[in-house]
Amino acid sequence: MKYRPILFTTDMVRAILDGRKTQTRRIKYKCDVGDVLWVRETFALTNYGRPVYKADFRDKNGDYWSSIANDPDDVTWRSPYHMTREACRLYLQVEAVREERLNDIPPPDLLKEGTPYTSEDPNDVRLEFIQIWDSINAKRGYGWDSNPVVKVIEFRVLKDFCGEAVI
Prior knowledge:
The chain is of the alpha+beta class and 167 residues long.
């Protein structure tokens, strides 16, 4: 078992916390069944050095809340790349790993990816997944149309995990 950092966007962290995301597709990412992934996410530090997480802020159409500011625009957010393991609050246990072509994603996996579907039509959900995928990966040359080989990682959230031992 190894500890490995993994980056997620704020929306995908929210999907994990909501229980909607239990799978991720990655390019050139090393992990094995049993590994523990520690999630790097956008964060800020309070005056006391305690981390707070952007995923905990509500949508601009809803109410914002935070212990450090009334408005997330007043917060100095730090890139997930700068998050240390000590600031991490979310650990994932790798349950399964396989490789497949990106375009071969089956409809049930679209939902396991945390795709925020607004329709019951699987084609609409696929289009939403493609938009999310391209917004993250196209600029690096791995857009949907390039149909890269991806590593499919299935995971579960480790509850009350302190980063010391696997539960």
